[in-house]
User: What shape does this take?
Amino acid sequence: MKRVAWLALSAGILLGCGEESPTDVGGPLLPAGSVRTFEVVLDAADFMGVDTSFSGYTRIQGSGFQVVADGFEGTLDAHTLARFDIPTIIAVTDTAGVVRTDSTPVFVGGRIVARVDTLRSNMPGTVRFRLTRIEEEWDPATATWTLRVDSSGSQLAWAQPGAAGGSEIAAIDWTAAGSDSLIIPIDSATVAEWSDTTTTARGARLSIVTDGTRVRFADLVLRVDARSTIRPDTIFTTTVRPPDPTFLFDPSLPESSADLVLSGAPGWRTFVEFREDLGLRMVPCPSSPGCRVRLDQVAITFAGLLLEPQASPPGFVPQDSLLLEARAVYASERAPLARSPLGVSVGVMTRQIAPDRFRDVTGAEAIELPVTGFVSGLVNSDTTFAPPSPWVALLPYLEGVDFGVAAFRPLPRLRLVLTIASELQLR
Amino acid sequence: MNVSRLVPALWFAVALPGAASAQSLFGMRGMGIPVAPVDARARALGGMGIGLPGLNASLANPADVAGLTRRGIVAVLQPGSASPEVAGSKGNLNASRFPLVRLIYPFGRLVATLGYGSFLEQSWGIRQTGVERYGADSVDVTDIVESTGGLSRLALGAAWPLSERLAIGAEVGLHAGVLDRRVRRTFADTVTGLLEFDTRYRWGYRGALATLGVRWDPGSTVRLSGSLTLADRVEIDGRTTGSGDDSFRAPFRVAAGGSAYLSQLWLATAGAEWSGRGGEAESVFDASDAIAMRRDAWRLGGGLEYHGVRSGQRAFPFRVGAGYQQLPFYNVGEDPASEWSGAVGMGFRLAGDEANPLAVADFAYERGRRTGLTSAALPDGLRESFWRLTFTLSLFGN
Assistant: This one.
């Protein structure tokens, strides 16, 4: 008896536990427009408070590239500076194949090898580079166009702005065809000067003297040739990489801007403050004529800041395409906004922006930066997805890799794609 | 038979699947599609479950359990499938539900019961695809709308035999339930960055009910039975953001039926039930934009039971029946719908006698068709053929 009962029970349970899929028919039985997705574009006044930009988020010295320019876009001059610490000991392989050290090498000359980033450079054809000595004491970590030392306790100006005035080492015409390496010979006397580690009044200044050009170097090294008593018949070449290469440029940009400025070196970021009561904003909805609905009563399917490009400051057009990212900001009264820590990414562009978008801006379309997660969290602030503050920071996805800056008009608009299920009530 | 061991198992079986999914697209209208709280025997005999001799655990009339002397439990499982057809498109729905669970506990001549039964079923699911235009863009979308739940009745009852031929019964309880609706929209990946839309609504139902019933055996082979159910307004409590409160005037119900032995081997039964508030069709909900209507509705059914197959103490009755019901809910601009069904079934009385069995298993197989909800937009309305199996397991102790 029990067996029969349990069998019946088990069969019942098995039959009763199936999960079924919804049917593909029946749509016409739902009220028309049961679920609607629609677009709303908000002007700045309707969704944000303040926008502002600050620079200084990346260092030139750590950027991994150098720039030279001569009247680029009629304005920009830039020089690359490097101080080489030439070794006093070199490694030599003797005739037996054994590697030995020689502490008394004789340097017979060398050459500076600069790898030109031709894709990120602006030069019409043959250009002329000039290498001069730096004959004043200077600090690679803090030097600027006007100051050779700019530390907190000391500010010392160059005799001539831009580390100019040093004697010429070499000048060379160069064309990108066939090679991306610029090679400038250095004589033994100069190598000897640069080997004197008792003074900081040494170094090389590389400049370009072809008007309207801007060239970016991806790498800069000194290759010095030496003879050794271990194998006198052989020239040994040692590669010396400057520990802190830098570049100076003029004019400089201000430290903050009312425009929306991003990227560059030192790096720029833009901060946009959204309205904390964004969820209470009424927006038009498509359900019926005159329909309006509160933002916190619809689902945010997509939100994107519409950024209108404007011309970058002369000389500072981006060198390469760039992606922009939006990140949450831990803004608080305890720290200035510019130094507020950033939170998680809340949106990344899916398509890169070409540099030309910041050169010719006539009739330019707006560029959209997704901020869906941020807006959704802000509108539904009672959820775990609420952002830490109503501020969002806009910055390049890769910071500090471009000398140029991306500029946008202030007061961006916000495009919202919203979805609402308005016809599924009990009625 | 140790009933105390099997009771937890039966309750476990009832609780396991929770609400079933995708019962019928007719459940989209108003408060759903009526589901009678009857067992497999009643299903096979036309679905009325009133005025049947022997064990009759259906919730149609609280007086019908009078005379039972054993305590026990009855549980009903009902898997089924429906094939809806709308605007020339055909689909399929499969689901299971537990339309009835009833505890029976005699105290001397008084038989107390605790019953849980289905009343209105609102489980359905629809998937539809389309193109949505927004701003200057458009995107392919897939919408899935799912509704799960409905209104059930939970009642505490008692039956009392006034004499050998006359018994009365009463029940008080609740109309209660939960309805979940989930709406999802997914976007084709041709447009990046669009978040899936997924929102859920939940409502809770609660309202009081009371049933009075009488059973009369005018002769040794004839039984008549009738009941009246009065119901309070069912309050609809929106439990999520966006799901509004409302209320629903639950219908009164009058049921009557009877059965008669045509011979020692053949039993005939028939019944009718009217549910409604009287008067013209009315709006189901109070909301100002309500579009759901409710009409007074009839349910009719009858069948034959054959007792010729036996094996010792065991009996294996065969049953055949048919039923018809008017579906009460439809939208403004639509015509109401109706359902008919035919059924066959079989019982297995494994121990005990007919009046007080110890263990009974019954099953019924029904096929039927629902039609209606025609409108100017849908001239053919909704047509739905269905089949369903009903299993009942009844276990009693001494």
About this structure: Residues 96 and 231 of chain A are 11 Å apart (CA to CA). Chain A touches chain B through 52 residues (CB under 8 Å). The helical segments of chain A are 2-16, 44-47, 188-194, 372-379.
